[in-house]
Amino acid sequence: MPLNSVNTNVGAMVALQSLNRTGDELSATQKRISTGYRVADAKDDGAAYAVAERIRGAVAATTSANEQLGGVKGLLDVSNAALENVSSTLNKLQAVTVKLADGTITPEQRSQYQSQAGELTKNIKSFIKDASYNGLNVLNDPGTLAVQVVTNGSGTYYTFSGFKALTNVFNSVSAASTWTRGAASAALTKTGAVGKAITNTLTQLNNFGSYSNYIDSQINYNKSILDAQQSGLGALIDTDMAKESARLQALQIRQQLGTQALGIANQAPQSLVSLFRG
To answer: Can you give the residue ranges of the Flagellin N-terminal domain (predicted)?
Structure first.
């Protein structure tokens, strides 16, 4: 290849190639800095991008599961609050029933105590019927007792049972406003109306408390999983901004030098003109 040629400038070609490479690297660096990602799309690193997309899907699924669990937590909190109020009211009803079982009270006093008992049973029914969250009530004699909840992004289910509180609690004491001395005495026994209603309520308070603890634990566990997933995703595709900043400055200097080198190379053919001067 001729070196002293005005048609072929090898030095300029080399300088231009180097300048183009620097421009490509500079564009890539600017992209990483502007997006914050080392791998912003499949062109940057196809394999890493594919892995990142799978992790993003897992993060979205786990986040969605935790949102659903938040709703279940609200439902269980409402149910627990209702059962606690039912339990407290049953304790009051038990105290009134003791008075109804007393054979020394006057008919007028019995009527007053029966009225109190009736109001307490109305409260119990109201607590049960009002225990709704997002349109769902797992105490108001639900037709389906089994409640399935998605607990994670993999679609794993946790199942807990609803409770027919109207049947197993309210119905036992619904006639309290008409209890005679004998009926009140029978209601106070362990297997009597009040004793049975209290036992059933306390059993369900224990069960629903366990359900709530499980949901709380699962929510916290999912949060830990999300932190780990996002940390791993960041390590895979995020840009090291300090490193890219230093690289940007180096490439800008290289670009300036490359531009100067190209300018010098382009001037080289001018020296050949002097060969034809007399």
So the answer is: 6-141
With 0.85 as the threshold, say if the pTM is over it: no
Four-CA torsion 95, 195, 119, 167, nearest 10 degrees: 170
- 101 neighbors 161 (Cβ within 8 angstroms): no
Do the Cβ atoms of 97 and 240 come closer than 8 Å? Answer: no
Give me the helices (H) in the chain, please.
10-35, 46-100, 107-129, 165, 171-173, 181-187, 193-237, 241-267, 270-273
Contacts of 192 (CB under 8 A, 6+ apart): 186
Is pLDDT at 19 greater than 60 in this prediction?
Answer: yes
Contact 69, 218 (CB under 8 A): yes
| Cα 272 to Cα 251: distance, rounded to the nearest angstrom | 33
> Distances in Å between the alpha carbon of 25 and those of 21, 30, 45, 47?
6, 9, 15, 20
Q: What is the DSSP letter of 189?
A: S
- Classify residue 253 as exposed, middle or buried by CB count within 10 Å of its CB (0-12, 13-18, 19+): exposed
- Tokens 């490193």: give the residue: 243
Beta carbons of 141 and 187 less than 8 angstroms apart:
no
Segment 72-118, tens digit of pLDDT: 999 999 999 999 999 999 999 999 999 999 999 999 999 999 999 99
Domain limits of the chain? 11-36+239-266, 67-236
Distance linking the first and last C-alpha atoms of the chain: 28
